[in-house]
Amino acid sequence: MIQLKSANEIAEMKKSGQLLARAHQHIKSMIRPGTTTWEIEEFVNDFLEKNGAIAEEKGFEGYQFATCASVNDEICHGFPNKKPLKKGDIVTIDMVVNLNGAMSDSAWSYAVGEISDEAQHLLETTEKSLYKGIEQAVVGNRLGDIGYAIQSYAEAEGLSVVREFVGHGIGPTMHEDPPVAHYGRPGRGLRLREGMTITIEPMLNTGDWRAKVDANGWTARTVDGSLSAQYEHTLAITKNGPEILTSLDEA
Fold first, then answer.
1. Which residue positions form the known binding site for substrate?
2. Would 149 be classed as within a structural domain?
3. Structural domain boundaries, residue 219
4. N or C: which end of the chain has fewer CB within 10 A?
5. What total number of domains does the chain contain?
């Protein structure tokens, strides 16, 4: 069931999203060779607690951490750990913030020092594909318009789109209807309505689009060892167009 949000509910989600964006701003300054994803995990726990928020991922279906930290060929749901990041790595940090019951969800991929041209192209294209999808998130369009915009752009740039993991509705709970695929056909799928709040979170690979899951039951990685990146925003569908809730630029 899709829950349409009021202007007041969207405003509260934006407060949550602004806090999440501030966390990512701090994380960006932490990323360097030698940093561990465990240090980022500890920062996020402390930052959210100091700001009266809850790390919503922690405890979700048994997940133990406030963040997902996915390095290189890890697509998503990587566990934070004490292994130092090294020059040339890319790392995606994903988190969900609950501020007074209002949810926001955002992931960003970061370069660790100087990275390869292939990795840089992946990061730039994945971020651009997110905004290609957001441009289609307007009242009257369909979910397939979002997916098609992302897929057509990514594949034209020589990258593949992960199918197994998708965006979603978000609001009182972390994962709600509708699922938001990052591939598809224009003019197909659910029609977008004012008051819908969704995440768009494309995951692109430099090689095969398929994923395999580690023995921990959570961490997904590319089947061929190729690099993967992800960028994600939470947004509201409004009569004036998409409103990004997890960006400080939208303040």
1. 77, 175
2. yes
3. 7-246
4. N
5. 1
**SS3 state at 241:** strand
- Kindly provide the b/e burial profile for residues 151-175, where b requires at least 16 CB atoms within 10 angstroms of the residue's own CB: bbbbeeeebbbbeebbbbbbbeebb
Q: Which residues are annotated as a binding site for a divalent metal cation?
A: 94, 105, 168, 201, 232
What is the pLDDT confidence band of residue 248, given thresholds at 50, 70 and 90?
confident
Q: What is the pLDDT of residues 38-70, one digit of tens each?
A: 999 999 999 999 999 999 999 999 999 999 999
Beta pairing class for 74-76 and 220-222: antiparallel
Angstrom distance (rounded) from CA 99 to CA 217: 28
Binding residues, as ranges, are 77, 94, 105, 168, 175, 201, 232
Nearest CA among 142, 112, 134 for reference residue 200: 134
- Whats the size of the chain, residue-wise? 251
Q: What's this model's pTM, rounded to 2 decimal places?
A: 0.96
Instruction: Answer yes or no: is 174 within a domain.
Output: yes
CA distance 208 to 211: 8
CATH number, domain of 50, equals 3.90.230.10
CA quadruple 70, 41, 39, 12: dihedral sign: positive
Structure tokens at 222: 């590319």
The reply to whether 251 falls in a domain is no
Note the pLDDT tens digit of each residue in 94-113.
Answer: 999 999 999 999 999 999 99
